[in-house]
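Z., the sequence and structure:
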Amino acid sequence: MSRLPTGTFIPGSSPVHRLDARVKLLSLIALLIAIVSVDTLIGYAVIAAITVFVIGLSGLTLKTAVGSAYRMYLFFILVLLMNTCFFSAEDPWFSFWLIHPSHGGMVQGLIVVFRVFMVLVLSNILTCTTQPMEMTNALESLMSPLRFVKIPTDQIAIIISVAIQFIPTLFEEADMIRKAQTARGATFDSPKLSEKAAAVMPLAIPIFLGAFKRADELSLAMEARGYTGVRIHTNRKKACLRFGDYAAMVSVLAVCILLTAFL
């Protein structure tokens, strides 16, 4: 049996699985703000410790939790190199045309990579521990105040939810295309940058075409089932937050406030 694509919901009974989806979304937003705001080594260590703690609570394996981030290692390397070579021209190791690699640029690159890595891991934990319908209802509930200014929150929630659910599908399709291109002689693992760049186009174009095809098929399927975008139904009664939900939300907010205020 093939492994599940990254971001696919994995049933479980862990404390993270049992949390209300609205609490998980708000906690993720708070943690993302803390990740962007923190600017000290101790703060980064605390963020990493919190992420490891959440992975343990979720019951997910480390491979599952960091799967989406690990597959983007080439992007991380590119970000690190770009920051190292172009971010700061002060005290460069050497200078060549527009390239000025420096210690400050390398540090900035590591910070950017760390922040993006943490964001991807926490987002992946959310999608792996939350059912798609719960995610849609949570998004719609959190955006419900926007209805007073005539914003179609239910449609926006569905769009965001569908986009999130498309991510693991695109990862799976990209992996299948990469294997097919490798069988035809493409060199994705070549040490030469020129050969890697040449292999990207045969991979990117089918992914985009497949994404448009899936989007078209989804729109036709929704129309065939009578979806018109007009709200003609009511959601089931919203579940009330439990003590564990409040405790988790207060704990996350307290930690994030301490991180942004003191670290």
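The radius of gyration is 21 Å. Residues 153-230 form one domain.

Let me know what you think.
H.
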